[in-house]
Amino acid sequence: MSTPLVQIQTPRPRLPEWARRSSTHFESLNKLKTGLRALNLHTVCESARCPNIHECFHRGAATFMILGNLCTRGCGFCSVPKGSPRIHDMRLDPAEPANVARMAAEMKLRYVVITSVNRDDLEDGGSAHFAETVREVRRALPEARVEVLTPDFDGNLEAVARVLDAGPHVFNHNMETAPRLYRKVRPQANYQQSLDVLRFARKHSPAVLTKSGFMVGLGETNEEVEQLLRDLRAHAVDVATIGQYLQPTRRNLPVAAYATPEQFEAYKNFGLSLGFRMVFSGPLVRSSYMADLVSEQASNA
After folding, report:
1. Which residues pair with 146 in a beta bridge?
2. Which residue of 85, 245, 267, 273 has the fewest C-beta atoms within 10 A of its own C-beta?
3. At what angle do helices 157-164 and 127-140 cross, to 10 degrees?
4. pLDDT in tens, 178-198
5. For residues 42 and 103, what is the distance between their CA atoms, to the nearest angstrom?
6. What is the pTM of this model?
């Protein structure tokens, strides 16, 4: 009789106090959610289970997520719902650009952040819809600044140009992690392709602030973090955001380690030494968190 195999599980690190978000503002949360649902709008704050959602919704900030609420990619870190065009009805909502602008105006936003799911099923990756959303927001709120956080559009630089030509003030595309971890973290993405998107944005629209973010705690080394920062600067990125990966659901990748506040400060100082205008680094930092203040400080640097 064979001896049964015993599966030994490596204990996962416990969430430290500095990575906990304790404040809750349910009244603000529910009020904003009601307005969003009335216009059939989505936010990455909700879909990606952002730990800062109570704080941001309470201060009247949100990151609009367009092109629907189903992503055609299966990134290991992300809790945004996944979908296949062959199974789900993933037609774009033609009213979405105008509804985003309407909601942004109702919220009296002075800084509007627009992101999207990946739509690899669409020939242009959804870039025309993305650009129209930017134009609608700029028409509705001509004094507001607009930041876009785009997918890589599968390397289609014409699609990137289409979004840039709509007139955003900040162009953001996230690297997410070190290249060695792409296979498990971003299996349908390409590290160099994402860097090329950022470099193209700088060349195509020199006046636009370029920005990128990534997570730590997925198994990367300090040397890999430093190399990632070097690569971003080599591709003319102005702003870097660095945050702690927090497992959003049991289906997502586990946390490999938690970086201390001192380590985040060291990453910030290293990034600034490379010439970034701004490095926003901390356990609960997310790509769009405090985006208005980050943009302001970077613009004045």
Report:
1. 112
2. 273
3. 10
4. 999 999 999 999 999 999 999
5. 11
6. 0.92
